[in-house]
C-alpha cells in the first residue's frame, strides 16, 4: 500500500483522461494516488476522483459533484435495486440515454432524480437500445456499496 501525490504531468494526464470521458473539470489540479493490491485509487482534496484496475473509472463521489455531459443513462426506479445488486442493465429499465453511446463505451447510470449510482460498459449502441427496447444494454462494472466504493468512500 503506497499513497503519494502525482507530479504535475501525471496529474494532468489523469485529469485529461477523465475529461475525455465526458466530464468538465475546472477545480482539480493535483491528484493523490493510493495503490492497493492491483487497484489505484485517485483523490483530490481527499475526495475520490477515480479508480483504475484495467480501466480508469470515475468514482460515484466524483460524479455527485461533476455531472457527466455525455455517456449517461437514466433508469426507472424498478431497475435501481437490481443494478445495486450487480445485475446487468436491460433496455426495458432505461428512461433516457445518450444516443451517441457505442458498444464498449463506459456509461454512467443514474436514477430519475439524476443521482449516479453505477457505471457500466455498453453491450450495444445507444441507438440500438432506443430502437430495440429489449435485451441487455450494459454490463455493470461498478456500483454504490461494491468493494471499490467501500474502499474509496472510507478514505476521505
Task: Describe the protein.
With 156 residues, this protein is of the alpha+beta class. The chain folds into two domains: 2-66, Roll (Nuclear Transport Factor 2, Chain: A); 72-143, Archaeosine Trna-guanine Transglycosylase, Chain: A, domain 4 (Roll), CATH 2.30.130. It contains five helices and eleven strands, in the order βαββββαβαββββαβα. The strands form two sheets. A six-stranded mixed sheet has the order 7-11-10-9-6-8. A five-stranded antiparallel sheet has the order 1-2-3-4-5, sandwiched between helices. Strand 3 and strand 4 form a beta hairpin. It is globular and about 45 Å long. The model has no long low-confidence stretch (mean pLDDT 93).
Describe the secondary structure blueprint for this structure.
Layout: E1 2-5, H1 8-19, E2 32-36, E3 39-44, E4 47-52, E5 56-58, H2 60-65, E6 72-75, H3 80-84, E7 89-90, E8 94-97, E9 106-110, E10 116-122, H4 126-131, E11 136-143, H5 147-154
CATH topology of the largest domain: Archaeosine Trna-guanine Transglycosylase, Chain: A, domain 4
Query: Which strand order do you get reading across the main beta sheet?
Result: 7-11-10-9-6-8
Give the number of domains.
2
% residues in beta strands:
25-35%
Average predicted confidence as pLDDT: 93
Identify the notable features of this structure and list them briefly.
alpha+beta, Nuclear Transport Factor 2, Chain: A, 156 residues, five-stranded antiparallel β-sheet
Amino acid at each position: 500500500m503506497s499513497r503519494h501525490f502525482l507530479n504535475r504531468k501525471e496529474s494532468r494526464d489523469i485529469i485529461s483522461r477523465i475529461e475525455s470521458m465526458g466530464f468538465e473539470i475546472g477545480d482539480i489540479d493535483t491528484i493523490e494516488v493510493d495503490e492497493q493490491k492491483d487497484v489505484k485509487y485517485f483523490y483530490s482534496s481527499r475526495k475520490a476522483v477515480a479508480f483504475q484496475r484495467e480501466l480508469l473509472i470515475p468514482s460515484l463521489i466524483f460524479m455527485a459533484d461533476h455531472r457527466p455531459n455525455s455517456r449517461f443513462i437514466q433508469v426507472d426506479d424498478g431497475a435501481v435495486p437490481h443494478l445495486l445488486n450487480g445485475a446487468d442493465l436491460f433496455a426495458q429499465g432505461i428512461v433516457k440515454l445518450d444516443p451517441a453511446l457505442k458498444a464498449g463505451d463506459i456509461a454512467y447510470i443514474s436514477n430519475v432524480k439524476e443521482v449516479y449510482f453505477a457505471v457500466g460498459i455498453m453491450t450495444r449502441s445507444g441507438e440500438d437500445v432506443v430502437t430495440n427496447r429489449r435485451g441487455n444494454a450494459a454490463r455493470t462494472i461498478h456500483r454504490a456499496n461494491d468493494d471499490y466504493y467501500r474502499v474509496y468512500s472510507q478514505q476521505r
